[in-house]
Amino acid sequence: MFDVFQNILAEVRKEIGEMAFQIWFENVELVSLDTDLHMATIGAPNVFKIKTLESKYRDNLVKAFKHNGIELKQLDFVIKSAEKTRVRAREVRPNEPVRFNKANPVSSARDVFERETIPKISYKAPSNGLNPKYTLDNFVVGRNNDLAAGVAKLIVKDPGGKYNPFFLYGGPGLGKTHLVQAIGNAIMADYPDKKVLYITMNHFYSEFINAVRNNKGDDFVKKYQKLDVLIVDDFQMIIGKDRSQEEFFNIFNDLHQANKQIIVTSDRLPDQIKTLDARLASRLTWAGAYDLQFPGFEDRCAILKVKAEFMGQTIEDAAVEFIAENVKTNIRDLEGEFQRIMATSEIRGMSPLELINEGYFSGSMGRKPRSVAPRTVVEKVAKYYNLSVVEMTGKSRVSNIMIARQVTMYLLSKEFGMSTTKIALEVGVKDHTTVMNGLKKIDKLEKTNPQLHDQIEQIREAIYG
What we know:
Elements: H1 2-16, H2 18-25, E1 29-34, E2 39-44, H3 47-67, E3 74-79, E4 85-86, H4 109-114, E5 116-117, H5 146-157, E6 166-170, H6 176-190, E7 196-200, H7 201-213, H8 217-225, E8 229-233, H9 242-257, E9 261-266, H10 278-284, E10 289-292, H11 297-311, H12 317-326, H13 331-348, H14 352-358, H15 374-384, H16 389-392, H17 399-416, H18 420-427, H19 432-448, H20 450-464
Parallel strand pairs: 2-3, 6-9, 6-10, 7-8, 8-9
Antiparallel strand pairs: 1-2, 4-5
Helix pairs in contact: 1-2, 1-3, 2-5, 5-6, 7-8, 11-12, 11-13, 15-17, 17-18, 17-19, 18-19, 19-20
């Protein structure tokens, strides 16, 4: 039965392609098959993967079963815990799914704390900068990050190969650090002899300055030349650090020529980083640039459900949807709000939905305090762009004034849910059609222009800080 399933998976792999197969069919198993009743059950490690298998790949699976002589009338999907999960209360065999029921309850946050994910990590030295909590197993893959996650898995299979360097970019709190550290941890697990280092650009800069100050520049260079994998986070912080940029350029060339894996994260593309040398900007994207987007509503719901599953906690669908609908900043804030609700649920002995319905979190979702007035947004945006309120809400068509005006429209819509008619009155434009056009423009630019994304985030901080 299970040998047949390997043939089925091979057929699916051929039909959907290697990358999609690695993303969605890793750790997928055949749980049961009844040829008499024409029924099969497939196990996957989390609800998000199950959702995707059902909605996107069910037909591929049914067709593959049929080609292998099995006509299915019913195909079910169930959660099957990963082999690295264990529960302290009893021994769990490597391939045994963990079931939370009356015989094995998880009744409190303390019980949840005892349940842990054991990453497959073997460190050669504790100074590699990697955090063992970041693994590919607990990185939730969705439509906002599936390409980057797929490339990450290919890098682990062949460090220094086709995807070298790996340049990952996206806004704050979207999982860049998690994904690149997970790559490092996986490489350490599969290749224990490889020297892996994770470092932030600010740390690289400080280390370089200290080496120069202490006449240890050669030691600094040799340290990096000995690496097999270099992971540099927050690369955009290289702005204004000309000597560090030159040194990094040399180290990059040495490692790349030796087929050593280089992984870099940034909040923007290299050619959008001011003062970055054009040669280095070009080299960083030799193997392409991969971005992480903010997940849509359904993906945010899936992230929260997977997090609850990993923690062994229960949260109602309505509560999940409430959090996902109201937290639209980044994944870090989304998970932080989830943690806060679950902790309060534990302390007060109420379910998450009861807490929400009782108003414990009224006004706390996202970052919008009730005390902020729409006029404050207008004033803060004008100040940020060095304009007077009169200038910004006037009829000027000068580019920088129009952008400021459109950003104001965008924030009034996103943060306050104001109608386009009210926004038009607030910013001094003639009608709601102008507002709608402005909203479309900024919504598109905010996703594709990291500099504008940063500006909007800074204005939000000024408004709510």
